[in-house]
Design a protein that fits this description.
One of its GO terms (cellular component) is nBAF complex. It comes from Tumerepedes flava. This is Trithorax group protein osa-like. This protein has 74 residues and is mainly alpha-helical. The protein has a domain at 28-72. The chain has helices at residues 37-46, 49-64. α1 (37-46) runs antiparallel to α2 (49-64). The protein is elongated and about 60 Å long.
């Protein structure tokens, strides 16, 4: 069989960093400032990775914030 060995990384590399166990604060609509729905749509249509990721992050924040249901007209 194959022997599994634990990998050791140099102390100054990112792989050696220990993950944080504390939870991050959930972002809300107030944290992302007023953002226009048109800007989100244009970012999604652009096809650029950074713009698309930004738009999806903003949509996730807005969808999980219970105080901004009116933002989507629901």
């Amino acid at each position: 069989g194959q022997i599994k060995r634990e990998l050791t990384f140099p102390a100054d590399c990112i792989e050696a960093t220990v993950p944080s166990t504390e939870k991050r604060r959930r972002l809300t609509k107030g944290d992302v400032a007023p953002v226009d729905a048109w800007r989100i749509m244009m970012a999604l249509k652009s096809g650029l990775l950074a713009e698309t990721c930004w738009a999806l992050d903003i949509l996730n924040i807005l969808l999980f914030d219970d105080n901004c249901i009116g933002y989507f007209g629901l």
